[in-house]
Write a structure and sequence with these properties.
The strands form six sheets. This protein has a seven-stranded mixed sheet with strand order 15-16-17-14-13-19-20, with helices on both faces. Strands 10-9-8-11-12-22 form a six-stranded mixed sheet, with helices on both faces. The protein has a three-stranded mixed sheet with strand order 1-5-4, with helices on one face. 52% of the residues are buried. The protein is 38% helix and 22% strand. It is built from 14 helices and 23 strands. The longest helix has 22 residues, at 95-116. By secondary structure, it is an alpha/beta fold. Helix 2 packs antiparallel against helix 4 (95-116) and helix 2 (62-78) packs across helix 6 (184-196). The protein starts with a strand and ends with a strand. The chain has two domains: 2-121 and 140-252, Aldehyde Dehydrogenase, Chain A, domain 1 (3-Layer(aba) Sandwich); 257-488, Aldehyde Dehydrogenase, Chain A, domain 2. Strand 9, helix 6 (184-196) and strand 10 (203-205) form a beta-alpha-beta unit. The radius of gyration is 23 Å and the shape is globular. The structure holds NADPH dihydro-nicotinamide-adenine-dinucleotide phosphate (NDP). NADPH dihydro-nicotinamide-adenine-dinucleotide phosphate (NDP) binds next to helix 7 and helix 8.
């Protein structure tokens, strides 16, 4: 059975403990590889390697960093298919999604930041002095040193590289931990880094659990910035550890995103996109809309069509190109989602479609036989109050609620009543209303008449309990020191 290895100081390495954890394939529920059960000793070795590599990497001209990162881009492009298959097996997502979204976005992350590093400018101001004369005030930014990057399981290589690429491009060296639940593509990336000639110690990847490896990264004195994507509860723990050490922090946390659909929307576009924004990646995208508010005149039509479309989604083997919805990432997460469906029933919800685990295990297209993994039918629930637990807490699975509203104010009050503020989607052809509603929504990103369109030049991040700090948009990243202002009198 394949044993994944850590990547420390430019080499693949066993964990100090010599112990390994089981890695499950979600579609079969069976162990298919082993993950290093690393601990503080491995993090210390990785941090030492990153610290030693920093002076040279930080001083490497952006053009050279660009060349190395672009070599990595070519190698990921070359291996796109095998990475997509590995991501699908590891995570349970349809291979078509890994092929069209996850791996291409990992490529885009490296390409964007490699290029951005050569095009950053620092601001400078001419200052007039009282009584005549001039000074120039300008701002300098330096890479902060060793950065810690911790990512979740839902978009494994996409989110892992979104943290690593800007850090490396900025001139930082990195100690990174992918989710222990989906380590495979990060491990393949280690091998590509060696092949690309990334200098030893510039990127170090330590596999293992959050409480051991994640915590050791956050608490390490030589790791100066933490870029984290994951749950709000874990974010709280990280902030508690990092704050007294005055580390720079970016926390991309949970969401409970609203879709507000007005009766004047372009109906067909809205319907097709709402199916996608609800159930792509089994609903395991932090930006999926899980609360759907529909203007009352459109409600019945939407409900009927939405239920029909969703019931027709093909749930099954992630390896089958025709599959729309794959397996849930882990048994633990499967149980959590099912418990929320039960909760919704006790809160008075009516299940319009789905609501159960797949009754018949689907056949496997790749390995033969039946699949016995963790599959849940896409589920639509109505009849719940906007402020019940099902509508306030993050479920992070193929479960959405729908409810009608009468006024714009009512829709906004429903949308904003949660602790989260990650993203929101608005459907209307009324231009003034689109801007007015966007301005009043408490969300870090708002999509109008679309979903998941991202331009990496814009900073991304949630508000409220969905996080602090912004990622993306080169100036917004945390991998530089605090700006140093220089004032020179002419
Ligand atoms: P977790 O918070 O459980 O884990 C995220 C990462 O943190 C994992 O690598 C995990 O390791 C690690 N970790 C766990 N405990 C600690 C700790 N004490 N110290 C340091 N690191 C730790 O999230 P999930 O992996 O379950 O991901 C799902 C969550 O991520 C959802 O809430 C989702 O909304 C959010 N998310 C947010 C996004 C955003 O952009 N805002 C994007 C995507 C997801 P391990 O896996 O080994 O436990």
């Amino acid at each position: 059975m394949q044993k994944i290895q850590n990547y420390i100081g430019g080499e693949l390495a066993e964990p100090a403990s010599g112990d390994y954890l089981d890695n499950f394939e979600p579609a079969t529920g069976e162990v298919y590889s082993l993950i290093p059960d690393s601990d503080e000793r491995d993090v210390n070795a990785a941090a030492a390697a990153a610290k030693a590599a920093f002076p040279a990497w930080g001083a490497t001209p952006p053009e050279e960093r660009f060349e190395i990162l672009m070599r990595l881009v070519s190698l990921i492009e070359r291996d796109l298919e095998s990475l997509a298959v590995a991501e699908s097996v590891d995570n349970g997502k349809p291979v078509s999604l890994a092929r069209s979204i996850d791996i291409p976005r990992a490529i885009a992350n490296f390409r964007f930041y490699a290029t951005a590093a050569m095009h950053t400018a620092n601001e400078s101001y001419d200052t007039s002095l009282p009584g005549g004369g001039k000074a120039i005030n300008y701002t300098m930014r330096h890479p902060i040193g060793v950065a810690g990057c911790i990512s979740p399981w839902n978009l494994p290589l996409y989110l892992f590289t979104w943290k690593i690429a800007p850090a490396l491009a900025a001139g930082c060296t990195v100690v990174a931990k992918p989710s222990e639940v989906t380590p495979m593509t990060a491990s393949m990336l280690s091998e590509l880094c060696i092949e690309a000639g990334l200098p030893a110690g510039v990127l170090n990847i330590v596999h293992g659990t959050g409480p051991k490896v994640g915590f050791a990264i956050v608490a390490h004195k030589d790791i100066k910035a933490i870029s984290f994507t994951g749950g709000t509860k874990t974010g709280e723990e990280i902030a508690r550890t990092a704050a007294p050490m005055f580390k720079k922090l970016s926390l991309e946390l949970g969401g409970k995103n609203p879709n507000i659909i007005f009766a004047d929307c372009k109906y067909d576009d809205m319907l097709a996109t709402t199916v996608r924004s609800s159930f792509s990646n089994q609903g395991e995208i932090c930006l999926c809309g899980s609360r759907i508010f529909v203007e009352r005149p459109l409600y019945d039509r939407f409900k009927n069509d939405f239920v029909k479309r969703v019931a027709a989604l093909k749930v099954g083997d992630p390896a089958d190109p025709a599959t729309d919805v794959g397996a849930i990432v882990s048994k633990q997460h499967f149980d959590k989602i099912m418990s929320y469906i039960e909760l919704a029933k006790t809160e008075g919800g009516t299940i319009l479609t789905g609501g159960y685990a797949l009754s018949e295990p689907p056949a496997s297209t790749s390995g033969g036989g039946s699949l016995n993994g963790w599959f849940i039918e896409p589920t639509i629930i109505e009849g719940l109050k906007h402020d019940c637990r099902t509508n306030l807490e993050e479920i992070f699975g193929p479960v959405v609620t729908i409810m009608p509203f009468d006024t714009e104010e009512e829709a906004l009050s429903y949308a904003n009543c949660v602790r989260y503020g990650l993203s929101a989607t608005v459907w209307t052809e009324n231009l003034s209303r689109a801007h007015r509603v966007a301005a009043s929504l408490e969300s870090g990103i708002i999509w109008i008449n679309c979903w998941l369109l991202r331009d990496l030049r814009t900073p991304f991040g949630g508000v409220k309990d969905s996080g602090i700090g912004r990622e993306g948009g080169f100036e917004a990243i945390i991998f530089f020191t605090e700006e140093k202002n220089v004032c020179i009198k002419l």
